[in-house]
Amino acid sequence: MDASWEEFGWERLGHGVGRRRLPGWDATVALVVGADAVLLYDTGSTLREGAEVRAQAQALLGRRVTHIALSHPHFDHVLGTAAFSGAQVYGAVGMRDLLKRGADELHSSAVRHGVGEHDAAEAVDALVAPRHEVCGEWTIDLGGGREVLLADVGPAHSGHDLVAVVPGSPAVVLCGDLVEESGEPQAGRDAFPARWPLSLDRLLALGGEDAVYVPGHGAVVDAAFVRDQREQLAVRFGVS
Known about the structure:
The chain is of the alpha/beta class and 240 residues long. It is 30% helix and 27% strand. The strands form two sheets. The chain has a seven-stranded mixed sheet, with helices on one face.
């Protein structure tokens, strides 16, 4: 399996862990593979994109995605979720209600950023909200000794920021848009700038100095990059 990631256009991050940078918004989706189950972190910006990720995962692993963790409720990270029927979906506490009552805003945001009207409407109509909400931390056992820690570390980039930590040598930390490498971190109307640096402190505490940190957009970074971005955000928003 690990020798095949690159053949499918994915980047290997560690044993049984890989990610793909999707076209358009350079958003990351990641797979974590256990003996019994497979977790996908984020699902893309449309049902078509989600279906493509599903097909690649099936071809790469010969198995279905069983668990989905959504990093935060922005269109480019959640609108492909309905392509994964039967998967158990996790999000930060409060995300379920937000997605249910915020469908119009999600549709508008997708179209405003360049998703076609039909694709946006189709994905929002089929939108799958998290069944499992993470308050604090939640460990998922994927089998064969592979566990994934989900941690609600927001609010920061959004009101509902969920990271995934995959123990290993090194550990892999899936950061969502708490960290961005291919552009400046974006703070929209639902951001909590005053709390963002604190969330990055929590992220660093979870991952540690030697972890691989995977931004929601851009290349893999290290702890020093995360610390530097934390300080930039503190200066930008006038917080400590």
